[in-house]
Write a structure and sequence with these properties.
The structure holds two protein chains of two kinds. Chain A is an alpha+beta fold. Chain A has five helices and five strands; from the N terminus they run ββαβββαααα. Classes of the chains: A alpha+beta, B alpha+beta.
Chain lengths: 151, 761
């Protein structure tokens, strides 16, 4: 029996302990904002926060998550859009939008560790998140925009 | 019930608007008293259909556009085309809203299901705006006039006294009375549809939305993780499936041991899926499905399957040998596609230097971020499919065929697409879901892993190009021969197809943008050993790579600046004859003055020639016209001693005629620069013994933030020419422009894509 918190709600899980967090939130909890892209931590579409830090949920088995506090895209905007989401809208980042929840979660994590990121910080922080539509320059602009708000 | 009909015939395009306020179609969406109009247009142009390799439907009328105005003033516009990042749910409704003088904030966009009454819904070939621009305007202007007439009737004043002003209301010019669109809708719904000669379209100076930038309609939902993609569909009682596909195209299951699979927690059963009957077309590949109560269990169970395969004839396919075959074919005379003058006579005469070069571009996978996925619920003679699809009609037809039903028995709900790029025009994965739902008696969601996606794609074709020119003492070509060889998309539908279709050849190769007195294009045969399909900008990718690289090589051979030389090749500009069908050429002449213009602007934006070239930094240019749009890109590269290529800047200039939403256009061209960068740097699918060697983003890398162009500058030419495509035309110039820049920086010519094959990273 694994106990964890997802977006502040206490949850218990007694299924296959090898099940990655991704499929737990999507298929078991029915929260589909977190996306499946590669299953190997290569694309970042499944990024969520584990105890405040970005992780690839496709590669985090439930067995490792006893007592963890997980935040998904659904969890950052309970009281209206998060400043990163607002910046994303302002810059009109998304095209297809599928990777964007993962990009946003990664950016939230980046900004909490590095509130005023430079271009190299953004490159290093975001290189693990693929966008096949190619919205990278807008993602960069949105992160800089969101950083202004905290400054 | 159709209460009124107005038919307008205008050459190849026929159009009709119906008052559909009392029809049952779209029931549930509109309340009583709503004004509902549908606009019918004839099937889309021959050209786009041929290019996409799809058969052309008959001449039946098809409604293409629906709009409704509710008594509460809400304007519903049905998006009958697919949203996959192309911005179509924003751009098309805004065209209509403009002519309607509607308040954009009160417009709700509703996604249409797959329905023949919308006509072809194939969202491919970059044609949504160009095909529906006029129809959207007509629909909006017609509804506006009906609202004005309703107001005039209500007030008992002449129609000329009433205007739609400023938005969402009709005003009485004399008394300043106003009535909202919602209030007028019930009365307008009872009016006959005005004739085409009665409606007055706005002049471009009156446009409030067309040509003005606006963000995506769905942007807030997307950022909140609320947009429903195919991957996100959940249906009560749904099971999950993963399919072990035959590793080689056309392979069959010899034997299966599923004992270990059935022990996996959550796995319910395994189900064999039979092999396809050639040609494979959109049929499932066959294999063994693992059915489970969650996606992970299905994936885990699939890994435990022990399957012996009969790989079949394609097991002999090795891409290294195949490349040599294609290159050898490209050196032999091929089928003549287009001819101007007599190139052979000039070659024989000599009197100059012969320059030849061979180019090669490998297979590519689409790798949309959302892998193929679909949910099907098969009930007794009734099927519901939820699918991220560019081709909802194809879903209905193929599912019906596989289950022995009529397409009328199949409903297809179109979800958001997590990228499409042409992959999701092929509904094989939706058919898998339907077949498995029928066998289990439950709704089934088929989820493809990334490995499935990359190993079992409908690949962008591999191609070899042979180029030859005879140049005079100034280095200008007196004769030009170009030949391309690639397994055609037609092989997906006809196993004997080995030559490119007219459509494929029209994608950047049949005619030349250059002012050449003697020119011949040819195509040689190639047999496919994997599934071939269209990928964003299709054959333009390899064709533009060869033509624009060769032009660059000729410039250096002539010891001239590549940009100046490119302009000299284009010449003063002319209308190129012989490419498109006549009716297409009449509306969209291939005018190389526009190509020259985008080249000049791109050089200006990039400060061409003002930065130092060589010693690891350089600029490259390529121009290309595709999907009726003229594009020039200048790429700046820096190459370090280890061969690492970085791209600080891309300058793209676009002439796409009238642009519906410049913001969406900019996004498309920014994205195309990144897509093209992936093609140039690392894009390559190879096969050994019929098995594709790549399987995930580690072996099939695509551009990431740190290796994509840092900055893409998109300049849109102001134009009142007919609207042209924007989703795809940004892709073709990028790879040749990058390779030309790499040459300028390093002196190393890349004739075979990707850069990774040439010692660059």
């Amino acid at each position: 029996m694994i106990q964890l918190k997802v977006n502040g709600m206490q949850q218990t899980f007694d299924g296959d302990p090898e099940m990655p967090l991704l499929w737990y939130v999507r298929d078991i909890l029915g929260m589909t904002g977190t996306k499946f892209g590669c299953g190997m931590s290569l694309c970042g579409a499944c990024t969520v926060l584990e105890n405040g830090k970005a992780v690839r949920s496709c590669s985090r088995p439930m067995s490792k998550l006893q007592g963890a506090e997980i935040t998904t895209i659904e969890g950052i905007s309970v009281h209206g859009p998060h400043r990163v989401q607002k910046a994303w809208q302002e810059v009109n980042v998304p095209q297809c939008g599928y990777c964007q929840p993962g990009q946003i979660m990664q950016a939230v994590s980046l900004l909490s560790a590095t509130p005023r990121p430079g271009d190299d910080d953004i490159d290093a922080g975001m290189a693990g998140n693929i966008c096949r539509c190619g919205t990278y320059q807008r993602i960069r602009a949105a992160i800089l925009e969101a950083a202004k708000e905290t400054a | 019930m159709i209460s009124e009909k107005n038919v307008e015939m205008n050459g190849a395009v026929s159009r009709a608007i119906e008052n559909a306020s009392r029809r049952s179609f779209l029931q549930g969406l509109f309340s009583a008293g709503a004004l509902v109009l549908c606009v019918r247009i004839a099937p889309r142009g021959l050209w786009a259909a041929t290019a996409a390799g799809t058969p052309i439907e008959g001449s039946a009328f098809h409604p293409g556009v629906y709009l409704g105005i509710q008594p509460d003033g809400t304007v519903f516009i049905v998006a009958h085309r697919t949203e996959m990042g192309n911005g179509v749910r924003t751009s098309l409704p805004r065209i209509l809203a403009d002519e309607l003088d509607a308040d954009w904030g009160r417009v709700k966009v509703v996604q249409g299901d797959g329905d023949e009454r919308y006509g072809s819904q194939d969202t491919d070939g970059s044609h949504s705006v160009r095909e529906f621009f006029d129809a959207m305007r007509d629909a909006g202007a017609t509804a506006r006039l009906m609202l004005v007439r309703a107001a005039a009737q209500q007030w008992g004043v002449p129609e000329s006294q009433c205007v739609a002003d400023p938005v969402h209301v009709v005003s009485d010019k004399l008394s300043a009375r106003k009535l909202g669109y919602g209030e007028l809708a019930p009365l307008a719904a009872k009016l006959p549809v005005p004739g085409k000669d009665e409606i007055k379209l706005k002049s471009p100076s009156e446009w409030r939305y067309i040509g003005k930038p606006a963000p995506g309609y769905d942007v807030s939902d997307v950022c909140a993780g609320k947009a429903l993609f195919g991957m996100d569909v959940r249906v009560d009682g749904m099971l999950y499936a993963a399919v072990a596909h035959p590793p080689v195209l056309g392979g069959k299951v010899k034997s299966v041991d599923d004992a270990a699979t059935l022990k996996v927690i959550g796995v319910k059963q395994t189900i064999p899926i039979g092999p396809f009957t050639p040609p494979h077309a959109f049929q499932p590949l066959g294999g063994v499905a693992v059915i489970a109560d969650n996606t992970f269990a299905a994936f885990k169970g699939r890994k435990q399957l022990k399957i012996e395969w009969d790989n079949g004839a394609n097991a002999s396919y090795n891409s290294t040998d195949y490349k040599k075959e294609l290159q050898e074919t490209a050196r032999q005379p091929g089928k003549v596609v287009h001819n101007v003058g007599d190139a052979d006579a000039e070659f024989a005469k000599g009197g100059g230097k012969i320059i030849e070069a061979e180019y090669f571009a490998p297979h590519l996978a689409h790798a949309s971020m959302e892998p193929p996925v679909a949910v099907a619920d098969v009930r007794e003679d009734r099927v519901t499919v939820w699918s991220p699809t560019q081709n909802p009609m194809g879903v209905r037809e193929e599912v019906a065929k596989a289950l022995g039903l009529k397409k009328e028995d199949v409903t297809c709900h179109v979800t958001f697409l997590g990228g499409g790029f042409g992959r999701k025009s092929k509904p094989d994965y939706a058919v898998e879901a339907a077949v498995l739902s029928k066998k289990t008696g439950k709704p089934v969601k088929v989820v493809w892993s990334r490995e499935d996606d990359i190993q079992f794609d409908y690949y962008h074709s591999v191609a070899a190009m042979h180029m030859k020119a005879l140049v005079d003492d100034k280095g200008m070509p007196k004769a030009w021969l170009q030949r391309s060889v690639f397994p055609p998309i037609g092989s997906t539908f006809d196993k004997t197809a080995v030559y490119g279709s007219a459509g494929e050849m029209s994608l950047g190769f049949d005619v030349s943008p250059f002012d050449l007195a003697n020119f011949r294009s040819e195509n040689g045969p190639a047999t496919a050993h994997v599934r071939i399909g269209w990928l964003r900008s299709v054959a333009n990718i390899y064709h533009a790579f060869a033509v624009q690289s060769f032009a660059n090589e000729l410039a250096y051979a002539a010891n001239r600046d590549p940009y100046d030389y490119l302009l000299a090749l284009i010449g003063p500009g002319q209308v190129v004859e012989g490419g498109a069908p006549k009716e297409m050429a009449a509306k969209y002449p291939y005018d190389t003055r526009r190509l020259r213009h985008v080249a000049e602007l791109a050089a200006e934006k990039a400060n061409w020639g003002k930065k130092k070239s060589g010693k690891g930094s350089g600029m490259g240019m390529a121009v290309h016209r595709s999907f009726l749009t003229y594009v020039a890109s200048v790429v700046e590269v820096e190459v370090d001693d280890a061969g690492v290529v970085t791209i600080p800047n891309v300058y793209t200039v676009v002439d796409a005629g009238i642009v519906a939403n410049p913001e969406m256009v900019r996004q498309q061209f920014e994205g195309a620069a990144v897509f093209g960068t992936s093609i140039a740097r690392t894009g390559e699918i190879t096969a050994t013994n019929g098995v594709v060697n790549q399987s995930n983003f580690n072996t099939y890398p695509v551009a990431r933030m740190n290796d994509a162009p840092r900055h893409v500058d998109v300049h849109i030419v102001e134009s009142m020419a007919a609207p042209a495509g924007v989703g795809e035309p940004g892709v073709p110039p990028i790879a040749p422009a990058i390779c030309n820049a790499v040459f300028a920086a390093t002196g190393k010519r890349v004739r075979e894509l990707p850069l990774a094959r040439n010692g660059f990273v």
